[in-house]
Amino acid sequence: QVQLVESGGGLVQAGGSLRLSCAASGGTFSRYVMGWFRQAPGKEREFVAAISGSGASTYYADSVKGRFTISRVTTYIKSTVNLQMNSLKPEDTAVYYCARDRNQYSIIKTTPGEYDYWGQGTQVTVSS
């Protein structure tokens, strides 16, 4: 059974950094794009960053480009997807979710509906 478990969220001052991790198990993750999304109160879930199955390709939302870095480490039995977040802003405050693309060997997509497995989320709060 596929499981995604996020960790690393917390409270940080503007300009600070956090590193989120997503531990993925129960499937063959090396074939799948993995993505990070976020949802702020009263807003729709939005794309943050994604990385290809091999790790060779990444894609970022314009709002985080140059500040966030996605990476992954994949072994045979599990995969870890990290999101290094620097120069955090109050508008980055949200619950952050990792997710797995629903199709193998897919191109990177930014729509939440293209992802089928989701973690429970981790709260990131950036104070001004």
Task: Describe the secondary-structure layout.
Blueprint: E1 3-7, E2 10-13, E3 18-25, E4 34-39, E5 46-51, E6 58-60, E7 68-74, E8 78-85, E9 94-101, E10 115-118, E11 122-127
Parallel strand pairs: 2-11
Antiparallel strand pairs: 1-3, 3-8, 4-5, 4-9, 5-6, 7-8, 9-10, 9-11
Secondary structure tally: strands: 11
Shape: globular
**Total number of helices:** 0
Poorly predicted parts: none
Task: Give a short account of the largest sheet.
Answer: 7 strands, mixed
Rounded mean pLDDT is 95
Radius of gyration: 14 Å
Give the SSE string: EEEEEEEEEEE
Helix content: under 10%
Q: Report, as a whole number of angstroms, the end-to-end distance.
A: 40 Å
Give the class from helix and strand content and strand pairing: mainly beta
In terms of DSSP E residues, the strand content is: over 45%
What can you see in these coordinates?
- The chain has no helices and eleven strands.
- The mean pLDDT is 95.
- The chain has strands at residues 3-7, 10-13, 18-25, 34-39, 46-51, 58-60, 68-74, 78-85, 94-101, 115-118, 122-127.
- 32% of the residues are buried.
- It is mainly beta and 128 residues long.
- Helices cover 0% and strands 51% of the residues.
Features:
globular, 7-stranded mixed β-sheet, 128 residues, 11 strands
